[in-house]
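Think of the structure tokens as a kind of shorthand, similar to the way a musician reads notation: each symbol stands for something richer, in this case the local conformation of the backbone. In the example below we present two proteins back to back. Begin with the first one, reading the sequence and then the tokens, and try to describe in your own words what changes along the chain.
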Amino acid sequence: MPIKIADSLPARAILESENIFVMTEHRATTQDIRPLRIALLNLMPLKIVTETQILRCLSNTPIQIEVDLIQTKTYHSKNTPEDHLLTFYKTFDDIRDQKYDGFIITGAPIENMPFEEVEYWDELVRIMDWTKNHVHSTLYICWGAQAGLYHHYGIPKYPLPRKMSGIFKHHVLFPKEPLLRGFDDLFCAPHSRHTEVHASDIRKDDRLRLLAESHEAGVYLVEAMNGRQIFVLGHGEYDPDTLKKEYERDLAKGLNPEIPLHYFRNDDPSDDILVTWKAHAHLFYTNWVNYYVYQTTPYSLDKI
């Protein structure tokens, strides 16, 4: 797909090496069409890794997409080079007067903190409220999904007795839903979190629709506002080795982590990784871009 990103963004070289079509700013200006405008609010500490993962997942449609990378102003990342942030990232102040076809809010490794104690919570609340009038469809991921469900609908999160880490099977509840078009009855997806939301809380709220869940990992996919809000409690965008790196990081810190479930062959960390989730992850993002953004967004962004 022609993802329109800055010519010098590090993700460009990585994606092109994977034979993914990335459109440079120069080439994009020669096409007489309106690209979709999607912004990515990146709350993860390793921003280059996360932006590359998300851009890769947006790579399977022929639609030209113009991507803006957003960071919080309240909290400044210590794990991403300053020159990268200054060159490629904007803050909410830079975009508050703009409108977008799509908006993505990532997760963040802060699940054990109460929402109101997160340093940038007030800023995130302003952004989430802003999306309702400035964005056609907003996609919330993992902790971002928990934050969105809590702020918009009062859905609480609950601590888990141990970290939910691994690849889990999920079942589709509404196979005719466009977001799940082409999915198998069972599909795999990664989870990596210390908290959860309960399906019973989702089902009590008529404004929310539970689309997919796992017997082992719980809620996976929730829809609201006829697709204008999508909440994903897992990490389909993860690279094959992301959970391995998290596991090894926690081992090095002496945290005695459990081995990610259903991830290594024979559940042996010294063995190969079984990649069982990428096809459905790409299909999910393709469906979101096509059916929930491109097919329904107004041609004039001013009408959002």
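Once you have a description of the first chain, move to the second and do the same.
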Amino acid sequence: MPATLTQLLARGELGLRLLTPAGVGDVDAPLAWAHSSDLPDPTPFLSRGQVLLVTEPPEDAEPYVRRLAEHGIAALGFGTEVVRDGAPAELVEACTRHGLPLFEVPYRTPFIAVARFVADRVAADAYARSTWALRASRAISLAALRPDALGAVLSELSRQIERPVALVGGDGAVARSYPSGALDARARRALAEAADPLLRSGRRAAGTVGTDAGPFALQTLGAAGRLRGVLAVGSDSLDAAAQQVITGVVALAGLALEQSRAADAARERLRTAVWRALVAGDLAVAASVAEPVLGPLPAAPLRVAVLSGPAIAAAFDWLDTNASGFFAREGSDLVVLGDDEAAAAIATRFDLRGGLSAQAELDALPAAVEQASAARGRATADEPLPSFEEVAGAGMLALLHTPDARAVARSALRPLTAADPALPGVLRTWLDSDGVYDVAARKLGIHRHTLRARVAEAERLLGRDLTSFAARADLYAALRAST
């Protein structure tokens, strides 16, 4: 470890003597460096943990020592018999008040001897930490060759850095922790809550969190768009060498998780094959293929959820851990059978949009998929997973509220709005009144003959006869869709 003031004072050949009383400052704190300066204020050129060596006493000891103490200087060395014999009493008193250890450097001891001792110990410590990092990295690499590579790597990391290590899975739960029993329920919950936004982001990211077990550094594992988990490492007083080892473990852990992706991809293709067999009506084949690997198919009647969005891959991984029903990828869509709660949960968690069918039998899945797809067209940020019952209950005209229908409707009504922006509203009131001129005229506050003239004007502008039901229905649909 680096030199301390206690070790400096113990070097008989240096002849150093502590001038402040015992208990002033921390004489066992590691010293980062030793620097000499007789500037009135050397703090801009010093760093925390350094020793300052001086030969000239300050004009005003109180503010001088206060600045050094506030800057984090570890100790002050005063060289005697250069400018004066012995350290000024006021300097000793100021150092005592501010908790800054003061020691005497005799004339025969050059400052370079003190600086060299500190520098040698700093260099030795850096070499020792580099050597440790190499040994630790080698031990962790060998651990990666064991059958449970991921568990062995994380366990060895915890042993080497003497800090707790945990892995939060892609589902947001703490999957592993080392050493065993290092994390209680509250600490595990804190890690899961801190990892959740990192996983939701879908991007490689890092963060920190405080727990009952101390502070933890968090680092996502996996590629952007398909994160495999978050590595949590106890980060209390970790130095650069330990950080170097952890960086290597992040790569190894990510590799170990990626090695399972081939099996995951095979399971994903199997799910898609089972789903296509179900849609094709081959129920017996689908059940016989699914049960040994994926488990039994959900019992009918059931609902079908069809979801889409950029985070489909991450949602699929989450379902693989959390869902109890059947799910599969079909192109860019994610299909979930039977587990309504899981579908609603991932729609919210991964910002997906989808639709939910009415209850259906397994032999009616094609119709259920059509229902779910129709409901998906009504999905919003506030209601990401509407049901088909809601869509059907709103009636046929509610299906007109789509961007395509709105564009067609506004194009069809453009002659009316160009001639008189109020004309579409007049026609809407007339049609809402079942085409009865007297009723509509009273609602509009105009004479019925005036209303007839406005309708005739609309017929001329549109080039259509509005006496037929079909023409009126088409105009009414356009008026509804345009708003």
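Compare your description with these statements about the second chain. The domain at 264-394 is CATH 3.30.70 (Alpha-Beta Plaits).
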